[in-house]
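Reviewer 2 asked us to include a model.

Predict the structure of this chain.
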Amino acid sequence: MALLHRLWVHLVVLNPMTFLKIMKKERKVLKKIGKKVLIVGIISIFLITVLPTTKQAAVIYILPNIVNNEDLQETIKQMPELSNLGLQHLKELLSNEIKEAIEE
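Predicted model (structure tokens):
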């Protein structure tokens, strides 16, 4: 700590011109770093807003495959028939259950 204090006294009090030169160089370096950070920040914000999230990318990849699948389209066309068959099966099961319950 004492060493830093002596260095500070030497630069600022005894030789202020050297201190000002150092500060000027530091400001230039900080400006260069600041410009680079700003550029990286702008690029990052752009990429975050443009690139899709994982879920969006999955939908973008999978949805066309599902929509263009001919087997799936045929299944969707047959949905009313399949649902009617399913309802008939459920009705049969329920009627059997009711008959068994009445017999007991």
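Residues 1-51 form one domain. Residues 20 and 67 are 69 Å apart (CA to CA). We have added this to the supplementary material.
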